[in-house]
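In this supplementary section we document a worked example of the pipeline. Step one takes a protein sequence of length 194 as its only input; no multiple sequence alignment statistics are reported here. Step two produces a three-dimensional model, which step three serialises into structure tokens for compact storage. The input and output of this example are shown verbatim.
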Amino acid sequence: MLCVPKRTSGGGTCTCLGIRKAESSRRAKRHNVEVLGQRIGYEIHDGQLHTIKGGEQLFETDTKTKIYCVNGKDKVVISPIFEWSDKDVWDFIKGNNMPYCDLYDMGFHRIGCMFCPMASVKEKRKELELFPRFAEKVYIRAIRELMAQTGNYSNFDSPEQVFEWWISNENAADWLSNKRNQQNLFNYDNHKTF
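The serialised model returned by step three reads:
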């Protein structure tokens, strides 16, 4: 079996991922070695594979580092640093004098897409504070073009308002309702003077 980085997949290949269970509760449910599509997971202990979620043994091992797929058609995923803690990762990076992204020095713990829908509101606000031009040049510009071409987001007043909603993690109806209620509260033109 050929072991390749994530960019290649399919039968007869082994995909190596750099995921760790410490990164999220969802990833913590995964395993060191998995056979995709069969929901079979394996853990490696003392150089031996142990089946976690049932199924037949699909591998033969002769050392800690050699794993052979018996029938050759399964997609095998191996996560060699699955058990590493954050400290293990940083010890490895610093111990090997490896370069890393400056964003970690700015307080970021995970790096992915800017303003990711999976990020917390606090993380998105921090990104907006640090990179306002990115928000304007990429996101707001794209929203503006989308609104002009498709008519999407017609309930919103502007692309900036769509972006504010996007980083709020609220559903659109609730966000718009709250926004309109706030505006009405301070709109004195609609109130009669006694």
